[in-house]
Amino acid sequence: xxxxxLLLLTLIAVxxxxxxxxxxxxxxxxxPDHKDWKYHLGEKATFKVCVLRSGTLVDNAVVDFEAGPxxxxxxxKKNVTLKDGTMxxxxxxxQPGFYRLTVTAHVGGKEYKQACAAAFEPEKLExxxxxxxxxxxxxxxxxxxxxxxxxxxxxxxxxERCTKDVNVYExxxxxxxxxxxxxxxxxxxxxxxxxxxxxxxxxAGVRPxxxxxxxxxxxxxxxEIGIHGIPVTMEQKVYDDIYNGALTGYWxxxxxxxxxxxxxxxxxxxxxxxxxIEQYTPWNGKEMGVTGSSQGGFLSLATAGLDKRITxxxxxxxxxxxxxxxxxxxxxxxxxxxxxxKGKGQERQIEVSRYYDGINFARLITSQQRGWFSFGxxxxxxxxxxxxxxxxTVKGPKEISPYQATWHFWFQEQxxxxxDWLLRQMxxx
Length: 429
Hints:
Elements: H1 2-18, E1 26-32, E2 38-39, E3 45-53, E4 56-57, E5 61-69, E6 75-82, E7 86-91, E8 97-107, E9 110-120, H2 135-146, E10 154-157, E11 166-174, E12 181-189, E13 195-200, H3 213-217, E14 221-225, H4 236-243, H5 262-280, E15 283-293, H6 295-306, E16 312-316, H7 347-353, H8 358-362, E17 370-373, H9 384-393, E18 398-400, H10 412-425
Parallel strand pairs: 2-9, 13-14, 13-15, 15-16, 16-17, 17-18
Antiparallel strand pairs: 1-3, 3-4, 3-7, 5-6, 5-8, 8-9, 10-11, 11-12, 12-14
Helix pairs in contact: 5-6
């Protein structure tokens, strides 16, 4: 009886923990009348809006909405009542870009938001940023100078993370100066041999990392790096404190000085990570890739553009592209440096930004490097205007796979396609 009672008590404790909150009973849908969300210039895009409760329309739903070119809406309406819970809206563009309708419903004292961005001939989008005449020289000199500092690597086995197929290590190596370290998680197949390699570069923020054990288990060397010069295996609270303290807004540090810009050591760290892979791992000397999303998408472009050891790269909703587009009243990439004040009084920062613009690194990618680009049309952090313009800039072999309904996140199918593409580039699938 005691055993039965103990089992019942255990089940009572576990059952509530297994119940999960998923989604909302109230939802807003905004859908275009073209299945591929694409339109010709001058053509009208018609959007249908529905406010739903339990999948059925909400009578007399109250909504706010704004519409127009993304980041620059020219229509704004407040407290509009939708008698039958639906409305339609039409919009058009005469220049390549994205027309966005964003709707916020007010139901039961809460807000529910959705959007849809229609693409108008995005294949014709061109970036605004200019490549400085000494762009390549600046970065070559920076890399050459950094390589005067020995990597002086460290390597610590993490037995609690290892599997029967993969050994996992926390590693560090010197970056741009002595004792200026880059940390990462290295995953290496247990079986002896030479393997393709993949560098994983991070999105914005400060966090621990766990390494790409799955890809390594398929037969690859993987290295996932942090960018802030701190170990990547500490407790989350440590990173939260740093992010909310010393590294708050780090992406804006030294924007007026190309030599002290925060992303200089970050980009150099990516190149030195390739040096580490080449010198201290069982890389096969053939397939070498880089991938990341958001800030990591930008770092993927920078790494591929600067280092021809990269044979494949996969930027996902790449940030930090086409900073100066907002000076022309068009959508610009995160962190939207010059969006709020249109660059007034920031002439020096504008000049420096060109050395840290993903577009200019994309211009250096060659026909020997294969690319896979993916992003969402609803993304309001990395606008699809900049994502398409970046893709259009690349001259080498490339694929594009937009997941239109995503914002600044992944769909599972997108993740699966990305992983499959990476494995195929490494010739292990």
